[in-house]
């Protein structure tokens, strides 16, 4: 299929004088004119003379023709000049039998090539050309593929040539598919369409997005590039050929791949369970979270919400990322969260009383711990120690107190694990105070003291030259019996409980009464005097 061939011809004006010979201008160019005249009886020849109308007495050219010629050409004309053409009928003696004249202009210069020819609609051309001085009208000639010629007279440029036979424009393409592509690191939308196999010719396809992206193709696909994540594109496709563009296709909306989720954060909700959260991303169908543990273990989680719960163990470092998905594909790589869980709670915690006011706590080193904080607290005080080794001694503890002891593992990244189990341990009972001894008889003392121990048994010990005597009680006093007479004793009290042995009280010293003399004898010395004697113990 071809454009009609279009030409522009120039029209010229002529005016014939009223003479016996009728003269007319058949055609004229910028350098010649073809004249016609009527035959004159008896003429042996015809002479044609051309002179400018402004100087009719100064011919610029002439031509002679035989007696049977009634049409001839005269040359040597100049473009766009008004001439007076004279045709004289001559006899054999070259005398003038009759004469006729006509005024006519030579044609303007040769037209420049057409500037533009555009299709205004299916039945109209807009033709643009250069105007020539002195020209009153122009002839535009069109020729279709069937070689049909049509001429239109116009007077200015551009000119509309109407009522043409419609030229079949290409059909409206139908968008068939979208897909995301990556070329040289840039993302693009590949748009394809269905071509009408029943239409022949050379077609150019134009793809347009409302995001100011375009691409052209002569095949059935092209790529709109570059595009970013989370963009909404309204896309149309049109076709053009020599007849002009088709109407655009109906709009089709395409959403690019989603943007990567941001603001990743982790919450250790319960022991062994962590929840990864992130900000909501627009135009997303689903998310996949990827969790990789420091020892190489991996797991993933698919969800349509913005959080994911996974198994996490204490004392491990995790690398986590989240990808978003929609029909266009997956999001680019986004934030990678490096998260270290809390250190594991120590196992094998053992608490022993190394003295009445000191605990020694030992445990098995735990994973992820860089420092241990050991805390012992009762109702009135808190005792702390910090160490990197799995052992700690807590001193200056209060007697007869129940302490809650917690070993807390810590590290610089995740802080301290405050969820470790507490262990209860009591200190030994307090030392009895204000010891008092009361002699009941020569062989018995009553011992009393003050003490505020919760659950304690007391042992009273009296040590002397004749050995040791004891008594036991859970109260604040008891009697020591069967003491030998005339002996010195050191008396102290010590408390015991399930937590251990307390400190002994300060000692008190005492003695029993003297012993009664033995082997007593009385000898009568005189009537008025006796001699009494006995044995010493």
Summarize the structure.
The chain is mainly beta and 537 residues long.
Give the topology.
Layout: E1 5-10, E2 14-16, E3 23-28, E4 33-37, E5 45-52, E6 59-65, E7 71-74, E8 82-90, E9 96-105, E10 116-121, E11 124-128, E12 138-143, E13 149-154, E14 159-161, E15 174-183, E16 186-194, E17 204-209, E18 213-217, E19 221-224, E20 232-241, E21 244-245, E22 252-255, E23 265-270, E24 273-277, E25 286-293, E26 298-303, E27 307-311, E28 317-326, E29 329-330, E30 337-340, E31 347-355, E32 358-364, E33 371-377, E34 382-387, E35 391-394, E36 402-411, E37 415-416, E38 423-426, E39 433-441, E40 444-450, E41 457-464, E42 467-473, E43 477-480, E44 488-497, E45 500-501, E46 508-511, E47 518-526, E48 529-535
Overview of the molecule:
The chain is mostly beta strands and 537 residues long. It has five domains: 165 residues, Immunoglobulins (Immunoglobulin-like); 82 residues, Immunoglobulins (Immunoglobulin-like), CATH 2.60.40; 76 residues, Immunoglobulins (Immunoglobulin-like); 80 residues, Sandwich (Immunoglobulin-like); 79 residues, Sandwich (Immunoglobulin-like). Helix content is 0%, strand content 55%. It is built from no helices and 48 strands. The strands form 13 sheets. It has a five-stranded antiparallel β-sheet with strand order 2-9-8-5-6, with no helix packed on it. Strands 17, 18, 20, 21 and 22 form a five-stranded antiparallel β-sheet that branches. Strands 25, 26, 28, 29 and 30 form a five-stranded antiparallel β-sheet that branches. The radius of gyration is 65 Å and the shape is rod-shaped.
């Amino acid at each position: 299929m071809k454009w009609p061939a279009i030409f522009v011809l120039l029209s010229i004006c002529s005016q014939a004088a009223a003479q016996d010979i009728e003269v007319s201008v058949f055609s004229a160019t910028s350098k010649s004119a073809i004249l016609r005249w009527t035959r004159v009886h008896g003429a042996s020849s015809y002479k044609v003379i051309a002179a400018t109308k402004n100087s009719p007495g100064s011919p610029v050219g002439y031509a002679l023709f035989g007696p049977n010629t009634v049409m001839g050409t005269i040359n040597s004309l100049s473009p766009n000049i008004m001439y007076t053409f004279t045709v004289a009928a001559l006899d054999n003696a070259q005398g003038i039998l009759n004469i006729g004249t006509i005024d006519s202009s030579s044609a303007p210069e040769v037209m420049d090539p057409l500037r533009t020819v555009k299709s205004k609609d299916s039945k109209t051309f807009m033709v643009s050309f250069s105007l020539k001085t002195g020209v009153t009208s122009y002839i535009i000639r069109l020729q279709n593929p069937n070689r049909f010629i049509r001429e239109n007279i116009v007077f200015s440029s551009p000119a509309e040539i109407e009522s043409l036979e419609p030229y079949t424009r290409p059909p409206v393409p139908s968008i068939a598919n979208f897909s995301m592509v990556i070329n040289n690191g840039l993302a693009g939308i590949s748009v394809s369409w269905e071509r009408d196999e029943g239409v022949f010719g050379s077609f150019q396809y134009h793809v347009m997005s409302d995001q100011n992206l375009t691409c052209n193709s002569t095949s059935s696909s092209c790529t709109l590039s570059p595009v970013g994540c989370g963009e909404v594109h309204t896309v149309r496709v049109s076709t053009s050929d020599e007849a002009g563009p088709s109407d655009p296709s109906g709009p089709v909306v395409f959403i690019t791949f989603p943007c990567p989720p941001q603001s990743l954060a982790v919450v250790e909700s319960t022991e062994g369970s962590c929840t990864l959260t992130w900000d909501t991303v627009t135009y997303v169908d689903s998310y996949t979270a990827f969790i990789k543990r420091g020892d190489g273990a991996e797991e993933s989680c698919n969800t349509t919400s913005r959080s994911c719960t996974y198994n996490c163990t204490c004392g491990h470092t995790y690398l986590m990322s989240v990808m978003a998905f929609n029909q266009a594909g997956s999001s680019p790589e986004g934030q990678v969260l490096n998260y270290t869980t809390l250190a594991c709670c120590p196992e094998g915690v053992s608490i022993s009383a190394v003295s009445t006011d000191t605990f020694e706590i030992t445990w098995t080193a735990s994973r992820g711990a860089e420092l241990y904080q050991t805390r012992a607290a009762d109702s009135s005080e808190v005792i702390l120690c910090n160490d990197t080794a799995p052992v700690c001694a807590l001193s200056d503890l209060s007697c007869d107190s129940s302490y809650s002891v917690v070993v807390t593992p810590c590290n610089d990244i995740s802080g301290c694990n405050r969820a470790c189990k507490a262990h209860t341990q009591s200190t030994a009972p307090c030392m009895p105070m204000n010891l008092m001894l009361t002699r009941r008889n020569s062989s018995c003392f009553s011992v009393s003291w003050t003490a505020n121990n919760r659950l304690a048994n007391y042992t009273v010990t009296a040590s002397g030259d004749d050995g040791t005597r004891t008594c036991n009680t859970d109260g604040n006093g008891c009697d020591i019996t069967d003491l030998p007479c005339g002996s010195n004793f050191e008396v102290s009290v010590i408390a015991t409980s399930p937590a251990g042995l307390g400190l002994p009280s300060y000692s008190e010293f005492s003695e029993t009464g003297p012993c009664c003399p033995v082997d007593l004898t009385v000898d009568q010395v005189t009537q008025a005097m006796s001699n009494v004697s006995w044995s010493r113990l």
